[in-house]
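DM from R.C. (forwarded with permission)

"hey, sorry to bug you on a friday — could you get me a structure for this? deadline for the figure draft is monday and I only need the backbone to look sensible"
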Amino acid sequence: MKDKVVLAYSGGLDTSIIVPWLKENYDVEVIAVCADVGQGDDMKAVKEKAIKSGADKIYVEDLREEFVTNYLYNAIKAEALYEGIYPLGTSLARPSIAKRLVEIAHKEGAKYICHGCTGKGNDQVRFEVGIASFDPTIKIIAPWRIWDIKSREDAIDYAAAKGIETSVTKKKIYSMDKNLWHLSHEGGDIEDLKNEHKREMYEMVTPAEQAPDKPTYIDIYFEKGVPLKVNGEQLPPVELIEYLNKAAGENGIGIIDIVENRLVGMKSRGVYETPAGTVLYAAHKCLESATLEKEAMHYKQLISIKYAELVYDGLWFTTTREALDAFINVTQENVTGTVKLKLYKGTTMVASIDAKKALYDEGISSFGASELYSHKDSEGFINLFGLPNKIKAIVDLREKEGK
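My reply, with the result:
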């Protein structure tokens, strides 16, 4: 009886050529698993392509709602942005996929899990650490680390030799990863930092220059940090993200072009489209600024940095991440209300905030008189607050005067 290998299968160039390669180099049954995290592919066509490429069996798993509720919502509450800018589109999808790969490997009695990640990328770490978090006995096959194919050009040639159709060409050679949260573009001409990226690569976002000349206003309602309604209508998790992707994308919102520090040690450039994520982070941050007290808010900003690093580094299934979520969830108790955003030609501006438990008080914050705040109190506060500075200055002066 042949051993079984579960292949993380997308139907793209890399995973498509892995199917015949596994057959050539291992005496195994190949069980392809395509995780639907909102990439928008024709799953019937993906199934047919997997079997045509030589897979013995294929699963198509709809993980979209789980992806939103178990991963994206946590990231929104944490306001997790890697290196202060990247909304972690690829990183957040990997844990759910890794978890399902292990579940199917157990169901099928497979000894191996195979992925199509390159030896230079972060995803190999995310998948393998995620898999090991559930079953460290499963063996990993990573073709890009061992086969003779050295480049995407080689991969295209191999696909042609095996009769495997692919949308990737030597002229259009970007490596792209799409899900409900984002679309990433890497490789090709953007590897040269002197090259401006080409607007025609966009699929989710209208170039800002071509966006409507009139702004779009949109209301987003959060409950304990979780987005539930858009323009007063409660939407299921997946539909909410899809709606905001369309609304924000049409207004040119969600593009970042960054050079990031990969976990494996090198820098890489990526162009990311994250329309829904951009507006949700902006709205959540604004609502939180009105409802979260200063010390908790400032400490949470530190937590957000660490949280993003954990996600980026593939450490979702860890005690640290769970502990950070516990802290974050406490901070979200009063983060409830509606934020109105103005979307216009690539910009996201806050138009209004409506929160029942807002800590902002117009009577106190205005320049007028207030029962809770007296201008006279400031003098004593400043004297005490600045006392260490005064003492240091006195000591310095004494030293200069030789006393």
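R.C.: lifesaver. The radius of gyration is 26 Å.
me: no worries. Residues 371-400 form one domain.
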